[in-house]
Amino acid sequence: EEEEEDDGMEAWERAYADERSWENLQEDESGLLRPIDTKTLVHAQYRRRLLAASRIQKGLIRYLYLVIDLSRAASETDYRPSRMVAVAKCAEAFIREFFDQNPLSHVGLVTIKDGISHRLTEIGGSPESQIKALMGKLECSGDASLQNALELIHGYLSQIPSYGHREVLILYSALNTCDPGDIMETIKKCKKAKIRCSVIGLSAEIFICKHVCEETGGSYTVALDESHFKELLLEHAPPPPAIAEYAAANLIKMGFPQRGAEGVIAICSCHKDVKIGGGYTCPRCKARVCELPTECRICGLTLVSSPHLARSYHHLFPVTPFNEVSSVFKLSQKLAQTCFGCQQSLVSIGTKFAPHVSCPKCNQRFCLDCDIYIHESLHNCPGCESQR
Amino acid sequence: MNSVSTPSKLYSGNFTYISSSPFLYFLPPLMGLLILWQSDDVSLIVVLLDVNPFFWASSAASVGDSTSPHHPTAILSFSKLLNHVIPFLNSLLLLNQLNQVVLVATGVNSCSYIYDSGDSEGESAGSVPAVCSEILRRLEEFVDKDRLLGKGPDKVVAAGVSSLLSGSLSLALCYIQRVFRSKARHPQPRILCLQSSPDGPEQYVAVMNSIFSAQRSMVPIDSCVMGVQHSAFLQQASYITGGVYLKPQHLDGLFQYLSAVFATDLQSRSFLQLPKPAGVDFRASCFCHKKTIDMGYVCSVCLSIFCKHHKKCSTCGSEFSQAPSDPNATPDRKRKTSEV
After folding, report:
1. Residues of chain A neighbouring B323 (CB-CB closer than 8 A)
2. Measuring CA to CA, which of A346, A373, B48, B64 is 20 to 30 A from B210?
C-alpha cells in the first residue's frame, strides 16, 4: 500500500501533476485524438541535427567553465524539486558525457551567488572531483551577476595554453543581472580573449545573454522544461565548430604510459599512498599515477592512452548521412527486405516498405533506429565496414 | 505451477506455511526474486566467427605436414574447428531455455548473419541436428559468396590478409540495440569473437568506435584468439568493455576452453576465476613510422600522433606556430600560487 502513495498523491494524481499525460496526445486530420508517433518525430529531429552539423573542423581540446546560477531565482520550484537541484543533476550528467566525448579536455565550475561569483573547482581533467564539489552544498540567495562571472572566468582562461579552445557555458536562472560596471566592456574583453560564451536560460529570453552569445560566437537557448533543458545541455557535450583563429595549432608533447604489472608496489603521486599493482608509470619521470588521462604531478607531462585519443577520431571521420528512401516503392525481390544492421523487417503493412534509409556509399538499407544509433553512438556504417 | 514450487525450494519443506497469513507478505518479494532470478542469467550471445579462407587453408596444409602433436600451438583445420564451435553453440542454448545465440560470419570481403536461434520461422526450431545442418549449410553459402566477391581485377589476394572484424562488430552492436529496444525484460547481451586472422591496421578507428559504443551500452566483448599471434585490438576490446581475452594453448581442446571460460552468463562470472589480462599495451603508434612510442607529439587540431617535432601536420595540414615546447616550461603552469 505504501508504494502507491508517493508525496501524498495517488498514482492517478501523479499522472496529471508530474507526467503531464495530455502532452502525449495529438489531433489527427479528422479531429480525433491519438498518441504522438514518437518514432518518426525523433527521427525527424535527429535528421535536422545531423544535416545542420556538416563536416567542419571542431575544437577538440577544450577548456570549459560551467557557470551555475545560485541566485534567488534558482530556488523556484517550476523544475522539480527546485531549479538548483534539477540543474545540478543535469550538470552531473553533462560532465560525465563531456569527458566521455572529449577525453583531453578540462572542466571547471563557477557559481554566482549574492551578486558575487566564486570559483568552485579549478579547471581539471577528472570528472569525479568536479561532481563531488558540485553536489557539495547547494544553497541559493541574492542576485545574479553576469559581469562578475565573466570577469572571473576571463582571468582564469587567460592562463591556459594557446592550443586550447576557451569556452564558458552559463546555466542562467535569473531574469536580470546586477553588475558593478559596464558589462559591454567585459564582453569586449572576452571577445578579444577568444572566449566562446554560451548560455542556457531557464526562465525567459534575456537581451544581454543573447548579446553575449552573439558577440562571442556561442549559442543561446532557453529551456522549456526539464527534459528539454537536459537535451539542450547535452548538445554542448560534442565539440563545437572551431573558429580557426581562436586556437593556434600546436604539437603537444604527450606521454603514453604502460600499465604496471599486478603485484608491483609503488607510491602513487596523486594520493601519496602506497599502492599495490595496476597504475601507470610516467615515461619521463617514472612517477606512478593511478588513472588516465591526467597530468603527471612531478614533471607536468600530459599522460593519455591511445583509446582516449581514439575516442575523438569519430569527429574527424564522421559517417556520411544516410538518404531517406521513399516508401512508395512496392515490394521487389531484388531489394533487401530486412535492415542490414539488425535484421529487422523493413516491410510494414502488406506490400509497402516502412520508411527506411540507405547509405550512399554501400547502398545497404537500414531501419530508422539503426540510422540514429549508427550516427549518434556507433560512428561506423556496418555496410561500409563489411566490404573492402 | 512454477510460482508455487519455487517457494518450497527456498524454504525446504513446509507447505503448510503457504496458507498462513504471514507467509503471504513474503510472496511479493519472492516473486520479485524469482523474476530477478530468471532474467539475471538469461543471455544473448552474438558469436563472431572468423571465416578467413586464407588462414584456414594455410593451417589445413600445415596439419597435413609432420607437425608434432605436442607442438604448443597445434593448428586446427576449419572442419575440426566447426566440430568444436557448433556443439558449443548448442550447449549455450541448453544452459537456459531463454538463451539466444546469434552467429555472424566475419569474412574477408563481407560479413553476414548466419544463424539466429530466436528466429522461430526456420525449420530448425530447437532440435540439435537441425541447428547443426542449418548452420553448416548457411556457412557454406556464405563462404562461396565471399569467395566470389573476392574475385575481380581490382581485388588483391594476399596471404596475411585480415578479416573484416569491424564490420561484424558493427552488425552485432546493431542487433543488440534492437534487442534493447524490443522488450522491457531482455536477456543480457554479450559478444564473443572467435578470431584467427591478424589485426588489420586500416580498421583501427572503426574497431575503436565499436569498442566505445559497446562500453557505453555495457556489452562485454569476449575474445578467443585461435591465430598465431595475439590480437592487440581484441585485448583492448576485452579490457575496455570488461570481457575475457583468451589465447588457448592447445587448440584441439578448444571446446573445453570455450565451455569453461565463455559459456557462463555475466551474473555468474563474479563467482569464477576467469583468465586475467596479462598486460594490455595501450601505447600509441606514431602515424609516420607506425612504431609504438612512449612519448610523442600530438597535433592539437586533428590529434594525429608523431614521434618527432614537425613543422606541418601531415594529416590536417595545419602549420605549427610554436617551437617545440620546453619541458621545463610546463611545470610553471602547475605552480598555482594564490593568484585568485
Report:
1. none
2. A346
